[in-house]
Each structure stands twice: as structure tokens, then as C-alpha cells.
Automatic annotation (TrEMBL):
Cellular component, GO, one term: riboflavin synthase complex
PANTHER family xref list: 6,7-DIMETHYL-8-RIBITYLLUMAZINE SYNTHASE, 6,7-DIMETHYL-8-RIBITYLLUMAZINE SYNTHASE DMRL SYNTHASE LUMAZINE SYNTHASE
Protein name (record): 6,7-dimethyl-8-ribityllumazine synthase
Reactions performed catalytically: (2S)-2-hydroxy-3-oxobutyl phosphate + 5-amino-6-(D-ribitylamino)uracil = 6,7-dimethyl-8-(1-D-ribityl)lumazine + phosphate + 2 H2O + H(+)
Family: Belongs to the DMRL synthase family.
Membrane-traversing stretches: none
Keyword Membrane: no
Any Pfam family hit: DMRL_synthase
SUPFAM superfamilies xref list: Lumazine synthase
Keywords for the protein's UniProt record, in alphabetical order: Riboflavin biosynthesis, Transferase
Entry keyword Transferase: yes
Job description of the protein: Catalyzes the formation of 6,7-dimethyl-8-ribityllumazine by condensation of 5-amino-6-(D-ribitylamino)uracil with 3,4-dihydroxy-2-butanone 4-phosphate. This is the penultimate step in the biosynthesis of riboflavin.
Gene Ontology MF terms: 6,7-dimethyl-8-ribityllumazine synthase activity
Length: 205
């Protein structure tokens, strides 16, 4: 039986929107697929390359701080999707995946970011449960902090943080499943949500 889960689709025009993607680098192969899925959907909705700004941070715990700074327009390091797209490979399913847990490697290109406001920010991270309580603390604090940022600033923050109990759960939610079912790339949903909420946020300003 097919699943009833997921939002019903409505089309929003992203051609006037400016969107930031802030992503962690832990579990990079999954992150790369999710960021690519988000960007693809943003572009499909009409968001211009030059209006998609990407900033990476070490891990998910750093996402709230970075989102807050990006919204405040006070950071100067970012990479644009029209330039060297943070060194990601967008080849998709052919990537070999010995393990999703890789050490974080900085990938951002430094460019000057104009101080224009963002209509929405997508925070992307992949948390995979280990043997300690680390996972629970980070999941809890990051989700609460991201919610607080959007309420406090009035800029929608899309919750693109996977909280997976296993590596396979994370891979499936990025469309990289190891079995016959590759799964659905949740980055696409986050791109759609960013365009919808960015549009609402402009109208409700
Ligand atoms: C330390 C750590 C661990 C163990 N696991 C993850 C993870 O699965 N996903 C993730 O995004 N980050 C992880 N981190 C790094 C923390 O988020 C953070 O970067 C460090 O604790 C430094 O503040």
C-alpha cells in the first residue's frame, strides 16, 4: 500500500525570493545529496542561482548559531550556487558509500555576501545515533533553537535536520538507500517548503 505521509503539493513562484542554505558537514555523503535535492527544487520553483546562498558549518550543533548570523547578515563567508558550488558532486546515485560517517572537511568558497535579507533559511544536518546520549542532546537543542530563531526573527527556518537511528535511515531519506528502495530525497521537500514559507513571509510582512 502506498504511504499517505507528506505534504500535499501547491505551486509557489520563487523567482523573487532569496534563500540561504546552511548545512553541517558531518555525514557528508548524505548531506551532499540533501543539499543537491534542496537546490534542485529551489531552482525548479524559479529561485535564481544568484539568490541561493550556501554556508557550511562543522556539525549540526553549529546550525542555530550560523542561521542566526546569516539572518542578521553579519557573516561574510559564503558560497553562491552560481560559483564553485561548495565542492559538492551532484552526480547522484553513483556515489560509493562505504560509510556515511566521514570527518568534516571545510568546503565553502569565500565570497562577499551582500547584506540583502533572506526570505527563508534551510538548515540541513544529519544526526545519526551513536552509543552515547550525544544524539539526544543535539537533536533536542538544535530543533528548539531553530524554532526559536524563526519565531524571534520572523524569517522562516526550514527544519532540514535528519535525526536517524541508523545510517540506512539517513541514506533512505536522502534518496541513497542501499536496498532496492532508494528512498525519497527530503531535500526536495525542504526546497518546496522554503519557497512556500518565503512567499508567505513576504506577504505577511
Ligand atoms: C560530535 C558529533 C557527532 C558524534 N555526531 C554528529 C552527527 O551525527 N551529526 C552532526 O551533524 N554532528 C555530529 N557531531 C558534531 C557536533 O554537531 C558539533 O559539530 C560538535 O560537537 C562541535 O560543537
Amino acid at each position: 500500500m502506498s504511504s499517505i505521509k507528506g505534504p500535499s503539493s501547491t505551486h509557489f513562484d520563487g523567482s523573487n525570493l532569496r534563500i540561504a542554505i546552511v548545512h553541517a558537514r558531518w555525514n557528508k555523503s548524505v548531506i551532499d545529496a540533501l543539499v543537491a535535492g534542496t537546490i534542485n527544487k529551489l531552482k525548479e520553483c524559479g529561485v535564481k542561482d544568484s539568490n541561493i546562498i550556501i554556508q557550511s558549518v562543522p556539525g549540526s550543533f553549529e546550525l542555530p548559531f550560523a542561521c542566526s548570523k546569516v539572518i542578521a547578515g553579519s557573516h561574510v563567508q559564503a558560497s553562491t550556487s552560481s560559483g564553485d558550488l561548495i565542492g559538492l558532486s551532484f552526480g547522484g546515485s553513483s556515489t560509493s558509500l562505504p560509510s556515511t560517517k566521514e570527518p568534516p572537511i571545510p568546503t565553502s568558497t569565500v565570497v562577499n555576501m551582500p547584506n540583502a535579507p533572506f526570505d527563508a533559511v534551510v538548515a540541513i544536518g544529519v544526526l545519526i545515533k551513536g552509543s552515547t546520549m550525544h544524539f539526544e542532546y543535539i537533536c533536542d537543542s538544535v530543533s528548539h533553537a531553530l524554532m526559536k530563531i524563526q519565531i524571534d526573527t520572523g524569517v522562516p527556518v526550514i527544519f532540514g535536520v535528519l535525526t536517524a537511528l541508523t545510517e540506512d535511515q539517513a541514506l533512505e531519506r536522502a534518496g541513497l538507500g542501499r536496498g532496492s528502495e532508494k528512498g525519497h530525497n527530503h531535500g526536495e521537500d525542504w526546497g518546496l517548503a522554503a519557497v512556500e514559507m518565503g512567499t508567505h513571509s513576504k506577504l505577511w510582512a
